[in-house]
């Protein structure tokens, strides 16, 4: 008998099969991922996902009998009280032929099944039609700055980092362990030999001493004072400074005119922004601010799923944002981003105030402010711009960290996002404000 | 059991030395007392994840790549992680040496059980059963799988994943119609397959396809029956091995596509005996492990605790719920096989008058293992039941036969476990295990050479059981893709030749 340990064999033998499976099921998975991203929260988008996909299209058909009709004889165990000739009423058939657990359309008992996509697989598919790497050119500067911090010792390094204390300590313990003769021992021995040789006494002891001296000298040569093994270098690690953090403000008008569809558009946009920022920064905070005629910071659920009514006063949101910045996110330490989604309604008396706040308070401290005007799916824009649109258009004209776009349907979100975030600074003259992204 | 020094092991942990000791003790009983003859054994320790890997690719250690294995893996993994399904304790491969996988997560008691079950029970069955001897080449299978894997990988490189996938999908759909069901002249030798594949290609390059030379003389008129017979003879029709027919004669396939079909066909053929002997094979392995661990326990080599653990898993394996139990999902092959083999042993050792009357040739012969070895060697599930299922066991399991006609509101109890019913029940149960009866009988009967080269198939309908329509159309589409022209399937009632249903002219959708 042979017994072989295969536990260390490469795992994931089925990885290639999994890839083929993913490729095969891609269309369904893309759909499932998109659906899933609608229901999950913004911060969760970065994790892997359990995806349920319909078995449709992943069928492995074969010739088989339909399972109903015909005559069949079956033998079953556990007869209690039947005798030959008994008649058993058939169980009720539920609506034609699909009953019992085999209710799926392929008759194979294959229902949808769930499997877990890894984080990368998920993002890959989620960002499938988005070219993230090219999104930011100069605009979002790499603000990562690092300081070297001591991080123990290493066996390699540059001479400048040689750690003498640690090296000598290693050398000493090695010499003690290997019993290397001390220089003093050798010197003493040498003196004694010299003395004996000069005096001419006790030649026997002299030759013994000479042999001993040779032995020790050879040993001292074999065991070097400092061995390459002893050498240690100080190691430094680059620890990022806390400036590599960003806060993202999500501003949304939640007055009655914002439909579920509009909120969904907004959410998708926020998700993309979040994903994008987490790839640039180590730490991203999200602040949700919703407003009607007054504004408040809320959690994500409330932000997207509660219904409020009331007038629309946009400036309150900007004021709230300003308050939160002052309180928790000093602009010197934080990269501040803001995305605002709105259907464009605003109380006309508020417009001037909003413009002032944006221009003088918000834009100076934010890295980037994106305004998304969300519209109903099947209604095209009326000829005229909304109040907010006109206000922002005016207020943002001079700023190069401000952009605005309109979105009506989901498919426009990626292009708009890409458009907003891939535009280089400095060519603001070329900005075609108010242009709607193509579908 | 005051003396613990006789014990093979104590505690749950296993190590290689303990496994070796247990193996030696098991071998002594298996070979010395039960007279089992096996292929040499190789035991491989793997992790749970590797076990998942292994059985998503139909249990073969080497397998070509295909998405359906990934799908099964994803499904199995999810079920396993959720705790909805345990892992098989073992996988054993019909090869020489016979490879048994054991999982590192198992306790030592479980390893003992698995070694007795797989390395001796299944191994003996593989090595001795006539179907396996006739149809499979245990020595060559791993080499062949290696060839298949690298061949298909090469095809993917050369022709692209998608093209290879299309052929494999189609071939998989026809897998159960890719076996020769009747014995051939020579025993298979998979080692030569690769060499022969090359020879075949060389030969085919010299030949042109004879199929299309049979241009009809009278184009529109009917061919006379003699000509028809000649044409069918030339094409080897009717042919029930659909994959074989397509591999040899489909006009549009490239050589590499034929080779892939051949690979799928060979694998299907390799697993064909397993399908026909599932119940016996599991019964044999279960009976073997049961006998062996009991002997070890008697001899004081297994502690009571280990024995209890083993019995716990043994009983859950052979559990057979009654038909009206919620857990009932057909007859458990482990339970039936184990019960029948135990019953044979009982009849050899302590027969009743009834047993003597029913089984005069072995009842009371006092040689249970010899009798069983003969049964294991010569039968498959269907014939085994027909030969060995005793009235005593029918009574014990309270088996009864139900007759079900689709248009009647009632099912009839046709026979029960009484004097009049035994033979009836036994015959019906055997038929439930008859592969030839279980799988629809579908044959290629003609190629319409005069017309548009349409391939014509017949399904010979038994007892009015028709094919599942949606599935059938999908499979026909696959056949059409391989064949390159339209395919027609007629469902014909056996005996009366009445055409019950026609699947008309399914056309290929894609160039392969």
From TrEMBL, chain B:
Membrane-spanning parts: none
InterPro entries: Spore_V_R, SpoVR-like_C, SpoVR_N, Ycgb-like
UniProt name for this protein: Uncharacterized conserved protein
Native organism taxonomy: Bacteria, Pseudomonadati, Pseudomonadota, Alphaproteobacteria, Rhodospirillales
Domain SpoVR protein-like N-terminal intervals: 13-436
Boundaries of every SpoVR-like C-terminal domain copy: 440-493
NCBIfam families per the UniProt record, alphabetical: PRK11767.1
